[in-house]
Amino acid sequence: MAPLLSMHGIDKRFAGIPVLRSAELVVERGEIHALIGQNGAGKSTMIKILTGYYRKDAGEILFDGRPVEFSSPQEAQRAGISTIYQEINLVPYRSVTENICLGREKRRFGLLDWSAMHAEAQALLARFKIDIDVRRPLMAYPTAVQQMVAIARAIGFEAKLVIMDEPTSSLDEREVEVLFGVIRQLKEAGVSVIFVSHKLDELYAVCDRVTIMRDGRTIQVAPMAQLSRLDLVTSMLGRELSQVLHERLDTSNAAGEARETVLKVQNLAVGRKVHDVSFEVRPGEIVGLAGLLGAGRTESVRVVFGADKPDGGTIGFNGRDNAISTPSDAIRAGMGFCTEDRKHEGIIPDMSVRENLTLALMPQLARRGIVDEARSREIVDSFIKRLGIRCAGPEQRIRELSGGNQQKVLLARWLCMNPRLLILDEPTRGIDVGAKAEILSLIHELAGQGLGVLMISSELEEVVEAASRIFVLRDGRTAAELKGDAVTEQSVMAAMAHGDQSAREAVHG
Amino acid sequence: MADTAATLPPAHRSPRFDVRRVLTRHGAWIALALLILVNFAITPNFATWQTLNVNLTQVCAIVIVGVGMTLVIATGGIDLSVGALMAIAGALAPLIFLGKLFPLPHPAVGIALAFVVPVLVAAALGWFNGWLVTRIRIQPIIATLVLFIAGRGIAQVFTNGNLQVFNLPSFQFIGLGRIFGIPFQAILMITIVVAAAWMLRRTVFGRQILAIGGNERAARLSGIPVASVKQRVYLISGLLSGIAGLIVIARNSAADANLVGLGMELDAIAAVAVGGTLLTGGRATVIGTLVGALIIQLVRYTLLANGVPDAAALVAKAAIIVLAVWLQRQSHR
């Protein structure tokens, strides 16, 4: 039997720059197929061409035995291709039922048949082992539940092919297990799944075969079981980069201890989430802020940056207490802040790389309010080179860049200000392994030059490797401060779960 | 250099001609050119100075208000109060130069004040709009609805609802005067358009306007003083509405608080939309607004000059707006 989907010789250029060169993707019926590659490798473009979001420049797509070229995601969906994106594309104010039945409402005598729709929604969610009141608005439920609703909605369309673009990024472990159960059920029912993820464990847990892309080409297609992790990473990154990744990063920052603090936060309280948080950062030091979701990490650093108002406590920056009440105060004082939500709080999608990069610097680049474009171009060119930002040029719109490259632009937005403290909230979220390694090594380099770095990351491994000191938050309080040899994954986890005491025991015991 | 050029794929050097792209990017210009050509063919006496002057003078107020509207829309807002502010400025000016508000030491003082005070009052009311939007955090459409409703009433209170008729060439220069045969108001309009276009492209303020419209939260976290930029934008919109109000009453030799600027908010928004400014903010073109206003004006003129009734002209105007917004959506794919 012919494969369900075969894409051959796909070419695509943006502004003359090739992003796909003769890329291939073949998915068999009832197969769970991993699609992996660094950001910018062409995975998303490939998927967007398949679903009709972009037009291909060349190549051929066969779906279910017929040549196809969808002109919109809706058309692809009608043909049986459903896509689940990282972001939740639902209507938060409406009920769960309305979200699930949107676009295929049941009617009776010309009126909406609500009881039938509620029943259907309930039944659909039951397949995912989710038992919630479908009459309540979607936003009444946690993000993870909303994500599952999105998945349920997509699969409810009797899809032949389900595309999941990093579906697990906002799910907890239990929900990931439920999702995997659903994926396996789909497979049994003969539905194929294209699974895009950066988490190797997940790929090995559910996928049958893998297509690896790099620089717009299909590098390798193999059964998952025949490919070792090392082979997989090597073929994804290319040999040189993977060596960079395996080099141990130099994390010795003992000298930092002696210096004055650049940031000292004491007994901070914010709203209902932060009750008593204290931490400090010295110049040249990378400090990690660890904790579970909802521990108050993001809320704390937002207040430090002046984006939100504190209810109590002191924030000392550069030796002055509570002098910052707006982001512009913070920036003037020498702080930079990369938020966790790159799309909604970081980039200005319609503006160029150059304008995004110089957004905070702009007032300083101006004489009498007029932007000095020559100087701005000079600075931008130097940062594009220095951070290895892959783009068609400084005037390319930032929305066309991959996530990793957008993140580099946002880092550069702060670096060009010569800050004394850089706050990074999930700096590597949704970024592929290669760009991740680049960004982490850049952070180290900057710290080596005397920059204080405060880093939040949900990837424990990453914080432990990068930071010389870690403050662990739990339920809005600083539960432990770990430094030097005490910084291990076990001790941080113990502190996240039980507080300071057990962290010490984990170290000594 | 020769080396690089040789290895580059041909598509990089000569992107193939894409009708859709050209249409969406330069649609407004093409439409304007087509309209002018059609008029040369069918409208009697089209290629005369008089036609040009009639169209220019009728479009001035829309363009001037449209410039302010472009800036407001670029931040992701909207200003419904422009027509009402025109009425207020238009009602105030005659009260001042006719000496009804306070005794005048000299007629020249009255004329000077009649230019300055109404425009400043309109600007202050624009600032009030901005204050409602940024400090009280009312949605722009509702915040400016306040003055849309109340403004015309205020103007009528000033004048007791009376029509003010006057004949004062030195004041009316703004609407009737000519420099080298070109209507002064057209010169004023072009100056404002060029200044605003330059400001939007080259100044920190202009780029900050677009950054706010493009992503307000990101702009705030990058240290852009969002509230103050927005306030200034609404102030500018009010100020330009004031100027437009003066032009209209000068042209008519009369100020009627019921009629000055009536429906102007819709004309201005239409000009902005037709011109290619993104109504959700973040992308704006002042020159586009000029072209958009010219298109709307020319369509109306074409239909009227060829004996089509005014009511039908309104339908044509609506059709143009729909087409423009449709084209805008196409360019987003």
Question: Would you give an account of this structure?
Answer:
- The complex is a heterodimer of chains A (509) and B (333).
- Chain A is an alpha/beta fold and 509 residues long.
- Chain A folds into 2 domains: 5-246, Rossmann fold (3-Layer(aba) Sandwich); 259-334 and 460-509, P-loop containing nucleotide triphosphate hydrolases (Rossmann fold), CATH 3.40.50.
- Chain A contains 20 helices and 24 strands.
- In chain A, strands 6-9-10-3-11-12 form a 6-stranded mixed sheet, sandwiched between helices.
- In chain A, strand 21 (421-425), helix 17 and strand 22 (452-456) form a beta-alpha-beta unit.
- Residues 242-257 of chain A have low confidence and may be disordered.
- Chain B has a domain at 49-261.
- In chain B, the strands form 2 sheets. A two-stranded antiparallel sheet of chain B has the order 1-4.
- In chain B, helix 3 (19-42) packs parallel to helix 14, helix 8 crosses helix 12 and helix 13 (264-275) packs across helix 14 (286-305).
